[in-house]
Amino acid sequence: MVYKMTLQTAQALDESFQTGMAPDPRLTFAEWADRHFLLPPGSAIKGKIQMDRTPYLIKLLECLSWTSPLRKVVFVKGTQIGATLTSDIIIQATVDLYPVPILMIFGSEDMAVEHVKTRIEPALEDNPRLVGKVRDTMDKRGKSTRKLKVFPGGSLKFAGGATGKSYRTYSAGIVIADDVDTLLEDIGGTASKTGEGSPLELLKNRTDARDGKYKLYYSGTPTISGSSLIWGEFELTDQNYFYVPCPECGEMQVLDFFRIKFDRTDDYLLDSEPYYECVNDDCKRHVEEWEKIIIMQDGEWRPTGVSQDPDAIGFSLSSAYSTLGYTWADMAKGWLKAIKDKRQGDLRGLTHFYNTRLGLAWDQDPGEKIEHSELYARREDYKQIPKEAIIITAGADVQKQRIEVTVVAYGENQERWFIEHKIIGGDPWIPYGSEGSPWDDLETFMATTYPNEYGGRQPILATSVDLGYCSLNASPFIKTLQGTGVEIYGMIGKAGRSRNFINPPNTNKYGIDAWAINVDVGKMLTHNQLKTEDRMIHFSKHASFTENFFHQLTIERLKEKTIDGKATQYWYCPPHAANEATDTTNYSLAAFHIYGQGGLDFEDHREWNERGCPTDGGTGGATITVLDEGISL
Asked: How far apart are CA 558 and CA 527, in angstroms?
């Protein structure tokens, strides 16, 4: 008897079959790990592990679980963080409860075999929930194939990714690429011919038969900027970083290695126990390493970008977070050795440190990088404003819970003397004139005068204020002071919109002129002056110019990308990095240019300074008028 099936019945049966093939979503991988996961016998830490030891892995595992709609997780990281541990959990939980085919790819066949021998097979023999569930397959000669194993409802394939055959025939519900940058950029390609394409695209193709029910897990340490596969994938995601609270003030922050403080000997050996310094300048709490695992319990992943793929999420973590045997002292020793090697002309150690410890792609053009430590070391001991420093301006950057201000004096040929950096605490959303408002403190600070070599005191002649964060309160503050004759300007910083540094202002909805400055031009001008041997920029030994200030001033890098076939330069700032010193420096420079746009007579200003800066006679130097065209550097 032949049974004829209707189209509707066939579709219903197919839907039921697909539903039955989908993994059981009762537990997330993290929940399963807390109950049942055992570390492989060869691990540095033995036996059972609780997820609160590595709390940063919980969200990764949740995103990889079948309860999450996300399909791709990208994890760029330093070593000893637990990326391979995550793979172990996925594989063990899949064998136990969530049967689907898994494909795990490595840089070579030897790496695949080694992983099976040292992590997979011992775990399958050691965990009571997995014993007897998995068996090897046999090749045509009847010999056991360690790299292809089967279990009820699923299978495990481990392969080297150097050739195209590893990416064919096998349909997978979960694809794991371990240490992605060990894979070739173009599988099967040579200098003279194009290969089969990107390994990550080929891996994605292995999930095509899964009707959207699949997971991709790509992890690894990055290599060279511009060619690193894992870093390129990460930059396409929302770029999450793990924020932890200071145990003293509670401010959430990324554990930045460059805020881990320690002493060294003259021979670049570690000479003290490292500690982490809170990013809040009003706190600066010294966090000991034993406190790290405590504050991480209240940590959270925060996105710093917008994902170009709604099905993907990206995470970045340096080895500073490691709780798996790698310490801050280990990091400090590695850093000091790398710096010592660099001073001898060997950059390999520094490249390795950036890749494997910081989890950052290495830029092959380190010559453009200005070291913050070198600027800090070259500070000058001028306690009075030099005679050559003729005009003083200030730039104010508005941040959550504070306003940061940098005061700079300018001379001829735009020579600069940095005078002071002020951090004014307080919520900028508290209006000017109200109790606790930082705007009132900013007004007071703008009236500061500085002793000069003539024996008098020089005032701040012009101030620029950031309108980007809290324009609602910054605008009336500016408008009020402008009404009293104070030279104060509202700033909107934009990147790459114009070749001019200063562009004509537009009146904002609060009724003040908002000057548009091209921040890229300002950064380039400062960068070029910092590189000159004749020192066109000077820094005071004032206590406010800390190492952190110079770290912020030099954190951004000039990089290049191709848009529509044309090479374009841009300034790159790491997503979690503070760069307020860069912004305040730009705003101060903008104030100088706007103040002098009608023409500056430096001799008149110098004479005015020599006469003690009298308030009744005026400077006699600058005529303030608004130009119709932009001001180009």
From this structure: 9
Compute the distance between CA of residue 64 and CA of residue 239 in angstroms, rounded to an integer.
16
Give pLDDT, residue 107: 77
The SS3 of residue 371 is: coil
Q: Are 372 and 548 in contact (CB under 8 A)?
A: no
The helix (run of H) or strand (run of E) holding residue 243 is strand 240-245
Cβ of 417: how many Cβ atoms within 10 Å? Answer: 21
Using DSSP's 3-state secondary structure scheme, residue 394 falls into strand
Dist CA 185 CA 200 (whole Å): 9
**Distance (Å, rounded) from C-alpha 102 to C-alpha 158?**
8
Task: Return the C-alpha torsion angle 472, 477, 482, 488, nearest 10.
Answer: -90
Residues 6+ apart with CB under 8 A from 622: 595, 596, 598, 599, 600, 601, 605
Nearest to 583 by CA among 461, 465, 500: 465
Q: Which residues pair with 558 in a beta bridge?
A: 571
Q: Give the pLDDT confidence score for residue 90 in this predicted structure.
A: 87
Residue 332 tokens read as 């400090």
For 438, which DSSP code? H
Label residue 304 exposed, middle or buried (CB < 10 Å: 0-12, 13-18, 19+).
middle
Amino acid symbol at 469:
Y
For the chain, the 3-state helix, strand and coil shares in percent, each to the nearest 5, are 35, 25, 45
Q: Look at residues 386, 421, 391, 425 and name the one whose alpha carbon lies nearest to residue 407.
A: 421
- Other Cβ atoms closer than 10 A to 14: 11
Q: What is the pLDDT of residue 561?
A: 60
d(CA 460, CA 409): 9
Instruction: State the number of CA atoms in the 13 A half-sphere of 15 facing the CB.
Output: 6
Task: Give the whole-angstrom CA distance, residue 53 versus residue 81.
Answer: 11
For the chain, which ranges sit under pLDDT 70?
Answer: 1-25, 40-47, 139-144, 161-170, 184-199, 204-210, 212, 345, 364-369, 496-499, 533, 560-569, 575, 598-599, 616-633
C-alpha–C-alpha distance, residues 612 and 457, integer Å: 6
Q: Which two tokens stand for residue 294?
A: 């405590």
- Look at strands 240-245 and 300-303 and give their pairing: antiparallel
Amino acid at 409: A
**Distance of alpha carbon 292 from alpha carbon 49, whole angstroms:** 18
Tens digit of pLDDT for each residue in 495-538? 765 567 888 888 888 889 999 888 888 888 888 888 776 788 99
Question: CB neighbours of 607 closer than 8 A, spacing ≥ 6?
Answer: 620
Task: Give SS3 for 144.
Answer: strand
- Give the closest residue to 239 by CA, choosing from 577, 571, 520: 577
Contact between 613 and 501 (Cβ < 8 Å): no
Encoded tokens for 491? 């700033």
Contact 88, 41 (CB under 8 A): no
Tell me if 561 sits within 8 A of 570, measured CB to CB: yes
Question: In 251-360, which ranges are continuous DSSP H helix?
Answer: 292-295, 328-343, 348-356
* CA proximity to 122, closest of 138, 110, 137, 134: 134
**CA–CA separation, 389 vs 384, rounded Å?**
10
Sequential DSSP letters for 355-399? HHTS--PBPS-GGGPPPHHHHHHT-B---SB-TT--EEEEEEEEE
